[in-house]
Amino acid sequence: MSIENLEQIAQAMVAPGKGIIAIDESTNTIKKRFDSVGIENTEENRRAYRELLLTTPNLGDHISGAILFDETIRQKTKDGVPFTEVMKKNGIIPGIKVDKGPVPLAGFPGDVITEGLDGLRERLKEYAQLGAQFAKWRAVINITDDNPSSTAIEANAHALARYAALCQEAGIVPMVEPEVVMDGADSTHDLEVSYEVHEAVLRSLFNALYEQNVMLEGTILKISMVIPGKNAPEESQVDAEDVADATVRVLKTTVPATLPGIVFLSGGQEDTQATENLNEINKLGPHPWPVSFSYGRAMQAEALALWAKDIKGNVAAAQKIVLERAKENGEAALGRWKKRA
Ligand code: 13P
To answer: Which of 73, 78, 151, 218 could covalently link to 68 via disulfide, CB atoms 3.0 to 4.6 Å apart?
Structure first.
């Protein structure tokens, strides 16, 4: 696959007014989401729920791609059609989470490092055959009084860059995702600390991508917003304009203009907050890159809660909510979202 192909996929992922839905929760993570609404974590419930999301009528009007988990990319609709085929028919690019999750970084209490590089070349080959056109690898950066260490930032950036190079070799667009966590128990940091950590993380990441010969033209950045920790004191909380201003500033000083696009994770923000912040960010544009969303919780939470009340009867009603969330976030990706009265 040539760089032109990777570039085309990357550009389609951030087409105007469109973003990505992240439904790549691992079996453990989806268990937490299902537990919170009283759904049993069986393979069939996971399949039925992902079918609901992926077959939402007209989803492709606002959603360019969906990130799947290993189990999901192999699943089919109840009528036997592979999810990846349904997606392509609806104009939704299949993506795949390929990291194996974070583990404690030895020697650095409180820091974590994402695993999953061993055997990745072979796994990417298989995912490409299964229809994946982009991949995701998430690095987790925790903020406490003692974290993150510069070692953790560099180790995670190195792994992200190794992963990205392997993706491009396999003809898959790498979505590189360093998440600066905002909703941990210890997340009491203010906006300024979030800014400083984001700056260090992004500098390290783009240095590492350069060192590993990753072609930025065929890469997408997925990042957290610069925002105070969820458990920060009241006086440290800020409004959407401040989040937007700090986020745009840090991106402009660290992210090369050749990158085809940037998408945000929601990271534990309330649904409307994630939409409003994205909207404010785009109101400050035009930026050197399209800036859109790749939300998991902020796209799904409301629909999942409704579906859980009646998993046979509430499918269409839950899909309506998914489409609404997609439409609103699509508008925010253009800076044209209006708060509902
Ligand atoms: P949230 O939007 O729920 O943070 O999830 C997005 C994601 O893919 C995190 O890796």
So the answer is: 73
Is the CB of 173 inside a 6 Å radius of any atom of ligand 1?
Answer: no
Q: Structural domains in the chain?
A: 3-332 (3.20.20.70)
- Secondary structure (DSSP) of 110-159: T-EEE---TTHHHHHHHHHHHT--EEEEEEEE--SSS---HHHHHHHHHH
- Residue ranges, the chain, pLDDT below 50: none
Kindly give the number of the ligand 1 atom that is closest to the alpha carbon of 266. 2
pTM summary value: 0.97
Please indicate whether residue 222 is annotated as part of the active site: yes
177 has catalytic annotation? yes
**Residue bearing the CA closest to ligand 1, atom 5:** 296
Taking Cα atoms as reference points, which of 99, 102, 134, 143 lies closest to residue 120?
Answer: 99
Distances from the Cα of 4 to the Cα of 132, 173, 227, 257, angstroms: 17, 11, 35, 17
What is residue 2's predicted lDDT score, i.e. its pLDDT? 81
Minimum-distance ligand 1 atom for the alpha carbon of 300: 3
